[in-house]
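Reopening this one. Same input as before:
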Amino acid sequence: MRVAELAVADIKRKLAPMGPIALLGEISDIQTVNRRRRVESASRTAPNFTPLEFLDTRERGLSRILAWLLNPRGSHEQGSAFLEEFTRWLELDDEWRRDLDDAWVILEAPTIAITKIGYLDVLVRLKGRMLAIENKPTATDQPEQVRRYLADLSSRRLDAHCLVYLSGTGSAPSDESVGADEFGAAVAAGTLRVRGYAAIADWMDACAPRCVAPTVSAMLAGIKSHVLKEFSGVTDLGEVEEIGDAVLSSRDRLEAGLALLEAEASIKERLLATLVTEVEELVRGRRGWRVRRSDIGLSNNSGVVIGLTPNAAVGFGIQFDKSGHRVLFYGVNSMDDRPLPRGTKRVMQELIGVKTGTVAWPVWKQVGPNDKFFAMPKATGREFWLGLSDGSVARMLFGYVEEVERTLRREKLLVTVKERVLAE
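Same output, byte for byte:
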C-alpha cells in the first residue's frame, strides 16, 4: 500500500468508531513501521542481542549476577549505587541506606539457627541489618523453605531484616513454603517482600543514570532486555509503549483493546490446537510413530508427546511447567513413571546437553534462544505464538524426535525403547 493510501485509510479509521478490528489495523501499522525501523538499524543496534545469551541464566547464574550488582566492591566499580537503588526499588526505609559502602555480599550463605541446613541464595550484610534474596526464576519451593529462612533471619538479633522472594512470575511463595497467616504477617511487618523478575527492569532503569562506565551500562541494558524478554515476553518495549499510547488515547480504543484482551485465551487455545493438528499430520508420515499425548493447553503440566510406537511408554515432546504457562521445556517423558531402559538416560542427557530430570521427565531442558532443537525465547511470548501459527514449533518438535530416533538407532537402543510399551 502506498503512503497516500495509508494516509486515507488512517483518516477513515479516525472518523469511524474504533472497534477491535479497526484497532488491529492500527496496531498492525505500528508494527509494520517498527519492523522497517528495526531492519534498517539492525546492523548498528543488534536489537535481538544481549550478552546474557552467553551467560548462565539458570537460578545460580542469575544469583551471581544479582550479587555482582549489589556488591559495592564488584568489578562494575560503581560502588554502592546499585545496592542503594535496590533498597529504593524494594521501598525500604532510609535506615537501609546507611553505610552501604561497607556492605558484604555472600552467595549461598548457610542458615545458622534451624535444624535443617539451608542456603540463602544471596545475602547482603549491613551494619545491624541483613537483606536476603530467595531466587526463584523457575524452580518450585521446598517444603517450609520461606518459613525457615524467615525464622533464621529473625533469630540473628538484628536491628532489621528483610527476605526478598524473587520469582519468575511475580507470584508469592506457596502455602507449603510458608503458611498464609505467617506470610501475611511478614509482609505487613516488612520482613518479606515479593517481587517478579520482570520488575527488575525498573531497578535497571534507576541504576542506568548512576552508571558512568559504558561497558557496565551495556550490561544493565542487557539485563533489562533479558528479564523483559524471558519473564514478560516483551521483545520491543518501545513498541509496547506505543501500542499502549494508541489504546489509551480514547474510550473507543480502550474498549476495543479490552475486547482483544478478553479474546486472548481463545486465541491461544486455538493456536495450541493448531500445533496438535500439525504434529499429528507430520507424524502420520512416519512408520510406527504416534502422538501419545496431545493435551497441551492453558492448564498445568500440559504437553505434546510423540512415541516411536503406537503404545510407547517412553515419549519425546514438550510440556508447559506450572509457572503461569510461560515456561516451555522438552525432553523424555516416562509415561508410566518407570526408569528409562538401561543406557537411554545417559544417551539422552548427552544429546540434549543437560542432566536435570524428574520421575515423569527423566531428562528435560527449558527451551532457549541458542538451543539446538528449540531455538526460541525461554518465555512463551510473541515468537512462540507466531511459531504455532506458521508451523515452525511443530517442525522443531518433529525434527527433535527425528534426531532422537537416529541417535537411539546409532547407540543400538532403538529396539529397547520401542519395546517399552504402556500396559493397556
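So the earlier flakiness isn't reproducible anymore. For the record, The two ends are 59 Å apart (CA to CA).
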